[in-house]
Amino acid sequence: MPAPDVTTLLIEWRNGSRAALDELIPCVHEQLRRIAHRQMRAEAPGHDLQTTALINEAYLRLVDIERIDFRDRAHFLAVSARLMRRILVDAARARRSLKRGGGGGAVSLDDVAVVAPGRQEDMLAIDEALTALAQLDPRKAAVVELRFFGGLTVEQSAEVLQISTDSVMRDWRLARVWLLRRLTSGASDGP
Questions:
Q1: Per the CB 3.0–4.6 Å rule, which of 80, 104, 149, 178 could disulfide with 191?
Q2: Mean pLDDT by 10 residues, the chain (191 residues)
Q3: Cα atoms in the Cβ-side hemisphere of radius 13 Å centred on 106
């Protein structure tokens, strides 16, 4: 029996079929696992949320979304990545409130990725910087979410945003520089 088409399942889900979502998740599970694993790498050791729990929480939030209009697999994965990011930010805020204001230090970026791999990033600082970027230039913030948090390729990001791959690359480069400046010095001028 051939695997069901993801886009068809997304359309059925949009039209109200809960069974379509239940069939969709196994089709994209490995990609969701990669997205979750990528996002969990940025978490501090001993974080209480595991990759599988992050996927499950994202699934529960997806079930609660009312009639979202997913265009295709890439768009679904982008929304899933955004949900996972929100879950991790919410968890970080809850931990910080438990510590009564225990803020983190500066987060550094390298010139290859938005967040330097293997370092203990402060999810709240990243979220605040990305939120500030979204206020100045929503498309550049969306490119960062898709490429870094979602792990989407340049081509997939271009498809989701309905822009050229050249525009994705240009936005990616400018957003990385802006975020680096914001996270290391608190600069807030335009992207």
A1: 178
A2: 77 84 85 84 67 84 74 84 85 68 40 35 78 93 87 88 94 92 70 60
A3: 11
